[in-house]
């Protein structure tokens, strides 16, 4: 539309000299673009995309100005709405990014705290394992001392007592007194029983054979005595632990580290105790009792494996694992703890009516 240019401007625009500045620009450059809020004849405002053009006479002198304006109010409104939306989106994005940064920072702090706590717990667990290892080692040393005392000191005294009683029987007039002979016989029986108990206690604490002849010799002695006590046949086999020929020294056995020998021996001992406790003395009527135990100890280059299998009534391993700690079988828990302290693992496989198998695996560090 073409209107008188002066009429398009509001009073405030005219007061600021906006029409004059437009005419001056058009006079100098021939035209000037104008995007501005203007007035309609009825006094309402509209957004105009306009242009003020210079009009000249034929000789090039200024004749006047003409302004062409297009009503672009709807477009302007749309642009303003779009800008407002974009600004709202920018603010929302900025707020979201800030919240993400805040949450990420908080999560990082919590993660760091958790990592520090995990490290602390890991160190505490390592300290606990080391303390347990030292405790077990100290216990074994104390057991060895007590065992030696029982075997060497108490055993010798009991042997001397038995020899003295035997000699006393042959001396007159004791040898001719029936009452004295009867009393001496009773003392001999008591002394013999005490000697047997002392020997059994010494062997239970720590067999001297474990130190003197090694793991397999100690296990052979123990399983033979255990089989005699329990009436259950035991078959003990070893692989990789057989004696090796050493020229000039006869037969020798390649010894395992003392900690490994002790761990294998103690876990085998506990497994056999569990068989007596659960597979013989506590089975219900009608259930199959254990009648045989097979033990295999195998050494490879980097590990020792022990397998203890019985043909007893078995039990539900899954139910045992979900029981509270105070109600689990302490024998299994103790074996697992010993295996862990030596850096190994222990697993138990069993089913009701199918017997039980204990698998022990221990690493052997190469020197």
Describe this entry's structure for a reader:
The protein has helices at 5-8, 11-15, 18-29, 73-169, 178-205, 208-212, 215-230, 258-278, 317-321, 330-341; strands spanning 31-39, 45-56, 62-71, 233-239, 244-246, 250-252, 292-299, 303-310, 345-350, 356-363. It has 367 residues and is α+β, with helices and mostly antiparallel strands. The strands form 3 sheets. The chain has a 5-stranded mixed β-sheet, covered by helices on one side. A hairpin with a 5-residue loop joins strand 2 (45-56) and strand 3 (62-71). The radius of gyration is 51 Å and the shape is rod-shaped. Mean pLDDT is 77; it is low at 244-248.
In DSSP terms, counting alpha (H) and pi (I) runs of 4 or more, how many helices?
A: 10
**Largest sheet: number of strands, sense, barrel closure:** 5 strands, mixed
Unreliable stretches, pLDDT < 50, 5 or more residues? 244-248
Shape: rod-shaped
Instruction: State the separation between the terminal residues, measured CA to CA.
Output: 103 Å
Spatial arrangement of strands, main beta sheet: 4-7-8-10-9
The portion of residues forming beta strands comes to 15-25%
Helix content: 55-70%
Write down how many β-strands occur, each being a DSSP E stretch of 2 or more residues: 10
Secondary-structure element sequence? HHHEEEHHHHEEEHEEHHEE
Taking all residues together, what is the mean pLDDT?
77
Query: C-alpha Rg, in Å?
Result: 51 Å
Backbone structural class: alpha+beta
